[in-house]
Amino acid sequence: MTLRDTVTEGAFPEGFRSELDRLMRLRRDVRRFRTDPVDEAVLARCLSAFSLAPSVGLSEPWRILRITSEVARAAALKNFEAANAEALQGYSGAQAERYAGLKLSGMREAPVQLAVYCDDTTTKGHGLGAGSMPEMRRYSVVSAITLVWLALRAEGLGLGWVSVLDPAQLNRDLNAPEGWQLVGYFCIGHPEVTEVDTPELEQKGWESRAASLVIETR
User: Fold this and answer.
1) Which of 8, 13, 151, 168 has its CA 20 to 30 A from that of 96?
2) What structural domains does the chain harbor?
3) What residues have CB less than 8 Å from 128, skipping those under 6 apart?
4) Cβ(32)–Cβ(103) under 8 Å?
5) What is the pLDDT of residues 135-168, one digit of tens each?
6) 3-class SS at 130?
7) How far apart are CA 203 and CA 16, in angstroms?
8) CB 41 within 8 A of CB 117
């Protein structure tokens, strides 16, 4: 008997579990967007997943800035382009060519762009679980983003996580409050292609997904 064959009390039906597995498999870090606007009601429904996410001490430390002005978007794009050019210098030969050929941002096309932060100064949660491991607040934000990511995919929308950035410069450009730590800059919109079952980095020969999960015991 496999894990998939095991049914425990409170488990969802097989059909639901199969669709959840498909949703996770088809989730992608999207870089190629159409410029069509995103329905605000659909976006709000997806972002409400933040309120369902777990967080250390129930601190809910996520803070979201929606980037709408042309000035702010241009500053974020300039930040990415500078960081991307610097990152390219760290590679050479064929690896440099592969890196240069990667599309690592959908910032020019994505209609919705968010900067998501962790508020390390929050008093919500009264420090429970964060005293010995303060990074748990940021892990909580990442967990919440994952739920939003899946919710977006379920609505036919894509999310792209832009990590090639100078966080300090972005904080200054966006006038982020002191104590907020950038977790990620996100592009959201309708992807050019929705049914993609292989990560683009794997398609481009950058890296391969592990064939199986390895669990070690101690």
Assistant:
1) 168
2) 28-203 (3.40.109.10)
3) 56, 57, 58, 59
4) yes
5) 999 999 999 999 999 999 999 999 999 999 999 9
6) coil
7) 29
8) no
